[in-house]
Amino acid sequence: MKKFTKSFTQQESIPEAGINSAIEVMRSGRLHRYNTLPDEKSETDLLELEFAEYMGVPFALACSSGGYALHIAMRAAGVEAGDKVLCNAFTLAPVPGAIHNSGAIPVLVDVADDYCIDLDDLEAKAASSGARYFMLSHMRGHLADMDRIMAICDKYSLFLIEDCAHTMGASWNGVKSGTFGDIACFSTQTYKHINSGEGGFLTTRHPEIMARAIMHSGSYMLFERHFAAPPKEVFDEIRYHTPNYSGRMDNLRAAILRPQLADLDRQCQRWNARYRILEQVFNQCEGIHIPPRPEAEQFVASSIQFSLPGFSTEQILRVVAQCNERGVVLKWFGAAEPQDYTSRYDSWRYIEEMPQLPKTEQVLSTLVDMRIPLTFSEDDCQLIGEVISEVVATVATDKD
Ligand SMILES: *Cc1c(COP(=O)(O)O)cnc(C)c1O
C-alpha cells in the first residue's frame, strides 16, 4: 500500500540572504521600523518600496498580520459601526473577524460550483442589502471573473477591498490580483506565499486612504518616514483624526521577507508545477471533480481543492481518515464543527441574523482541500495524487 511520510506543515527554510540580513538587524539592535540612522532606510521601508514596485502601485504598508491589514483597511475606508460589508461565506475566519473588529456586519455571499464567490448572489445581495463595502476573499487562490466583479462594483458603487491572502503573485488577464480593488490586503503568515511567521501588507492607490492606514498602523507622527506613501500634506488633517491601532511590522520580519519577495514569481511556478501533477492524476480518477480553471486566471496553487460529487458525509469522513492513515492530510470544508484552519460560515455565531445558505452548504459538503508545501517534490505530488485516487475509488465502491 502506497504511503506518504513528509509533513504537510513543513515549509521551506528562509533563504540564506534573509537569515544573514536578519542577523545584521539583530546585531544593529535597531529592530523597530522607525529606529534608523540619519538617512537610513530600514528593512521595513525597503520592503514596502519593493512590494509597491512588485504590485505596480504607489503605496504599500507593511503591518503585523493580514487580518490586521483587513481591519485597518475597513477603518481607513470609513466603515462605521453597523455598516454592512459583503463578503464570501466560503473563506477563513480572519475575514468575518476583521469585519466584526470594525463594528460592521458581514453580509455573507454564496460560493459557486467553481469555488469562487457566486456572482448572481453577489449581485442580488449588493442590490438588496444596501451595503457600500465589499470584502472579496480570493479564497484558496480562486479568482472569480474579475471583469464581472468590477462591473458589479461599478453598478452598485461598492468600495472593494481584496483579500489577497492566497493570491500574492496571481493575476487575472495579466492584471495583478490586488490591483482591482480600492484596497488590497496580503498576509505573510507562515502558510502563505512568503513567510515571516506573522505579517501582512496593505496596498492602495488612494493617497488619503494610505495616509489613514499609516496613521492607524501606529506611525505616531513619524509618517514622513514612510516612502511608499503619499506626501506629507496629505496627512495635514488626517493625523488629528485617525486613531493609532498599533500594528507595525518590525525590521527583523522585513529582513527575512525581502529575499522571498524577490523570489516569489519563481516560487509561484514551482507551486503550479506541483498543482498540475495533482490535477492530472485526479482527472484520471472517476470520483474526483476539479473545476477547470479559466484561461484568464493566472493562479498560484499553494493548495488544491477538489469535490467528491455524490459522496455522503460519512464517505467524505472515510476518505479523510483513510488518506490520513496513509500520511496524506486533507481538510473538509463542509464539517459542521469548526476544526483546524477550516470553519463553516454558520460556526461564526457572533454574526447576528445568520443567513441560510443552502447553496454554500451543498458545495462545501463535498469540497476537500489540501496544502501543497514547496517541501514536496513533483514526485511526492504524483504519489499523493495516487494515494488520494486509490482511497476515493475504494470508498466509492465500498458499500458498507
Ligand atoms: C491567512 C488569511 C488571512 C489573514 O491572515 P493572517 O496574517 O493570518 O491574519 C485572511 N484571509 C484569508 C483567506 C487567509 O487565509
Structure description:
Helix content is 39%, strand content 13%. By secondary structure, the protein is α/β, with parallel strands linked by helices. It folds into two domains: 16-262, 3-Layer(aba) Sandwich (Aspartate Aminotransferase, domain 2); 264-397, Aspartate Aminotransferase, domain 1. Strands 1-9-8-5-4-2-3 form a seven-stranded mixed sheet, with helices on both faces. Helix 2 packs parallel to helix 9 and helix 10 (264-283) packs parallel to helix 13 (378-397). The protein is globular and about 70 Å long. The structure holds pyridoxal-5'-phosphate. The site of pyridoxal-5'-phosphate has 15 residues, from helix 3 and helix 4.
Q: Please state the oligomeric state of the protein chains shown.
A: single chain
Bound molecules: pyridoxal-5'-phosphate
Q: Which bin fits the share of residues in helices?
A: 25-40%
Quote the distance from N terminus to C terminus. Answer: 21 Å
**Number of E strands:** 13
The mean pLDDT is: 96
Q: Considering the protein shown, what is the CATH homologous superfamily of the largest domain?
A: Type I PLP-dependent aspartate aminotransferase-like (Major domain)
* Count of runs of 4 or more consecutive helical residues: 13
Rg estimate, integer Å: 22 Å
Shape: globular
Question: Helices and strands in order, then pairings?
Answer:
Blueprint: H1 16-28, H2 43-55, E1 59-63, H3 66-77, E2 84-88, H4 94-101, E3 105-109, H5 119-129, E4 133-137, H6 146-155, E5 159-163, E6 171-172, E7 175-176, E8 183-187, E9 200-204, H7 207-216, H8 235-241, H9 251-262, H10 264-283, E10 297-298, E11 303-307, H11 313-325, E12 331-332, H12 358-364, E13 367-371, H13 378-397
Parallel strand pairs: 2-3, 2-4, 4-5, 5-8
Antiparallel strand pairs: 1-9, 6-7, 6-10, 8-9, 11-13, 12-13
Helix pairs in contact: 1-9, 2-9, 3-4, 3-7, 10-13, 11-13
Bound molecules: pyridoxal-5'-phosphate.
